[in-house]
Every structure is written in C-alpha cells, then in structure tokens.
Amino acid sequence: SCYAFAPLGSIEALMKIRQGNPGYSIDLSEQFIVSCGMEWMGDYIQGCDGAYSPGPYNFITSYGTLPESCFAYVSGSGTVPPCSDKCSNWEDLIIQIDAWHTVASDINSIKNALLQKGPLVAGMIVYDDFFGYSGGGYEHPGSDPDPMNHAVVIVGYDDAQNCWICKNSWGTGWGEDGWFMILYGDCKIGQEIIYFDYTPQTGPQVNVKIHRIQMIGEIEGWLESEADWSYRVQVYTGSQWSEQINDDYSSNEDDHTEDVTYRFHVQTPTPEITIKVWDRDTITGDDLADVSGYIGGGSDDSTTDIRGAIFHCQYSLVTNQIIQIDTIISEGGYLTSSGTYQPDGGDNSDEENDAKVWFQLSDSYDPPEPNLQVTGSLSGSVKSGTNYFALGTFTVSNIGTDPEGFSESYLDWAIAETPAWGSNWVFEPNSGINLPSGDQVTVHVYVDVPDEQGTFTGSIKIWNTEDHVDYGLISIELVAPVEKTTLTWNIFWKSVQEVPSKDILSFLLVQSLR
C-alpha cells in the first residue's frame, strides 16, 4: 500500500505548508484509497497487491481524501476491509485535492519542485538488499533493468553525498527511523515524480449529492431535434457564486443516475443552492431557462439567474433544513423537486425542457455546544453562628463559542453541591437558563456560619444541567476565630487551677487589683 502512503505523505506535508503551520495536525486515511480504490478504480488499484500509476493519483483528485479517524489503516495485516467500513458521515469529511502534476526527471527540476511545490512522490525499484538498509547513501550494485515497484516521498537532498532524502512507509523500525538516503538516479528514482496542488478551504463544507435527474419533457435544441444535456450545481458561498459542472452528457429524455456529490466550502450559515440543466447544443450550449417553475426564462449561462434552475433554495447549516423556496417532497430517501410541467397554460406549458431532480444535502458544520466555566473563590472571617453571612461572589460563563460565527450556544446551569458544614446556603441566582455564548453571570453567596469556632473549607459544584460532565468548582475557606473574651477567661481559669488551694484567696485579691 505504498501507493497510498507516499501520495498522502506528500499531501500532509503540503497542507502544513499551505496552512503556514509546521505543527498543523493532519493525518489522512490510506485505507480509504486501498479499500475504496479497489471498488471504484477497477484494475488500477488492487488492494494489498499494489496499484498502477496514475490510478492512486486520479483517485485522490477525483474523490478527495479522508481523515485517518474516519477509516483507520488495517491493511498492514494483509486484509482489505470493504469500502463501506468507512465512517458513516464520510462525505461530510472529504478534503478536496485540486490536481496532480509530473516533474521532469533531471536533478535540477526535481530540486526546484521540492523548493516550490513541497515534498514529492517518487517511484523507485526495491531490491532485496534495500530491506536491510540501515543508514547512509543507498546504492544498488549493478544495473536497474526492472520496472518500478515502490513509491516513497522525497523531502530534500544532500549534494555533498549526491543523495535524495526520503521518507519510506515501512515504519520507524526500518532504516534511519523510517527515513533513508539514496543516490541521485539510483533504482530509477527520479524517473516518475509527482506533486499535488491543494488550496486550503475556509468555512464548513456543504455537500450536494445528485442522485438522479430525469427529463420529463423534450429538450429543445437549436439546430438539432434532440439536444444532449448535462447539469451544473451552483452554490452562493457567502461572497460569490461557485459552480461545478457535470460533463457526462445524456441523450434527450434519458435519466442521469449519477450519485455524484459536489462539495462547496461556504462562509455563510444560509448558502443558496441552485441546480440547472444545460444543453450541449452545437450553437447555444447554455442553460435551459425553461426548465423551471420560474416563469419568464433566464439569462443564458448565468450563474446568478435562478430562473433557469430546476431547483433553487437556501439551506440552513444550523438547522440542517431547507429554507423553503421551491416546492419539494421526499421520495425514496431523497429530496425531489415536484416537476414544473404546467399542462393548463402558462409560459412553461409547452412540455419542453421540463425536468425533475432527486438529491440530498448535508454539511460538515457542527453548531457550538455550551461550555461552562466558573471563576472566583470564596473566603471570609466571621463570628461563629452568624446568620446570612455574605461569603462573596463568583462568575458563571458560557465559553462555548462558534469559530464560524454562524450561531450561538445556550447554557443551562445550576448549583449542584455545597459543603455539608454550612446551613441555609443562599445563591443569587442559584441557576440560569439560556446563557448565550460569551456571556457571564455573577452569583452572590450567603451562608449561616456553624456555631463552633474553626476553619471550614470545601467547594461549591456548579454544573451544566444538560451535561453533568461539564462542571466547575469554587473553593471556599471560612474562618470562625476564637473570640477574645473567651480566650481571656480560658487563660484565667487555667491559672486558678494551677494555684494551691491555700493561696486561692490571695491570688484572687491580686487579680482583682490589676
């Protein structure tokens, strides 16, 4: 499975570079390529039996990558789990990779690509002696007539030793903690060099899965009697319209049954989503503006003109619901437009360019959860037995904020536990509901002090009433000191007890004269 480890090793490094953060945490799923590539790429990817270039690279740019947590690697044992073993919400977690490119095989071109594009995927031949490599610049004795059978990542070079510095996929127990150096050009390294393009995306991902599009009426061609057609998906991301085009054209009155997911990153909690059919007419090649309930047509090839759409809506990432614009129904687990044919009149009653779409919407946005934080401490010194003593204040805050700024969390909280030594604990307030993100409330604390002297400690427990694991503690130290009059009497009485009985009268007389 080196064909999965090498490209993902290159991409993980590229993502750190694009993020401008060497410590950026990213771990991508090799198992996604191994398991799903077997099912989706035909003979190009053969599980534990290897892969044929450029199959793995095309898989990555066509289907994207997944986090390791969604589909952990297990094929090191020689087994290949089915693609269906990936996590259930995998489509929401896809990371798109823009493209892959080749690099010329000369040393200077490879060096320049390393500096400009980041770590590179390299093919090479592995001979038996390579398994025993333990350090230094590797060089296979003799010629290299065999085809390349391994993929690694070139991360740098050492001109003093005429070597590429590479990362292997055999674990840290091999080579130099999993790394090695190899002479320029040895074992055909450098003859196939690949790099990837990746653009960091901002904002949550919205997924539009087109299950099926059916033409209900005849497609009106300009010159041809029957026009071929396809479709485009457009999303308003919050700052601009972004579109993805399906180039798999279908003949007139056929169905598109694609099950293709289109992914868009958005910067708004309510993106607009538009699905349009467009024709492959020799002359026009534009949006079919009549394929819609939006009477009056639309501008040819317009991204923003929704009148040419077979479906248009706003979608709420916060509620995962469509904000109703079109009439929709649920059919077979998919949302579908109701069709737009109007047999009783109207501008769209000619039975031409009429279509119906079955689709699903999902997203990667997670609304913020409330997060309780308490700050402060309580202390005081007071006469024992004091009632309704003002012990002090502390604050309860909701720090469960949304980094996207799309929505707020709301915290419900309450006092959960108090020290057993106190009686009649009073909190103003003693609970709260719907405390918004970033807000806080001050709590005043009163208590009846015990009738005995001493130092009383403990803590008050405050919790999130919806999640008792989310709680905080406020420490308390209350001192009820020994009173001065009591202390003086105790000393006097002890002194009396130490005087011989025959001298008591003289002792008391002396004390009274003081």
Using brief descriptors, characterize the structure shown.
15% helix; 7-stranded mixed beta sheet; 4 domains; flat; alpha+beta; 6-stranded antiparallel beta sheet; Immunoglobulin-like; single chain; 27 strands; Cathepsin B, Chain A; 514 residues
Can you walk through the features of this model?
With 514 residues, the chain is α+β, with helices and mostly antiparallel strands. It has four domains: 2-197, Cysteine proteinases (Cathepsin B, Chain A, Alpha-Beta Complex), CATH 3.90.70.10; 205-363, Sandwich (Immunoglobulin-like); 372-480, Immunoglobulins (Immunoglobulin-like); 487-513, no CATH class. The protein has helices spanning 2-19, 30-40, 55-63, 90-93, 107-117, 484-498, 504-513, and strands at 99-103, 120-124, 137-138, 150-158, 163-167, 179-183, 193-197, 205-215, 229-236, 241-250, 255-256, 260-265, 272-279, 311-316, 321-323, 328-331, 334-337, 355-363, 372-375, 378-381, 389-398, 410-417, 423-428, 431-436, 440-448, 454-464, 467-480. It is flat and about 120 Å long. The chain starts with a helix and ends with a helix. The model is unreliable at 289-298, 340-350 and 485-491 (pLDDT under 50).
Give the tally of β-strands. Answer: 27
Give the tally of structural domains.
4
Shape: flat
Overall mean pLDDT: 84
Q: What's the CATH H-level superfamily name of the largest domain?
A: Cysteine proteinases
Provide the structure class.
Answer: alpha+beta
Distance between the termini: 99 Å
CATH classification class of the largest domain: Alpha Beta
| Fraction in beta strands | 25-35%
Note the total helix count.
7
The second-level CATH architecture of the largest domain is Alpha-Beta Complex
Query: Ranges with pLDDT <50 over ≥5 residues?
Result: 289-298, 340-350, 485-491
The helix fraction, in percent, is 10-25%
CATH T-level topology of the largest domain: Cathepsin B, Chain A
Gyration radius, to the nearest Å? 37 Å
Strand order of the largest sheet: 1-7-2-4-5-6-3
Largest sheet: 7 strands, mixed
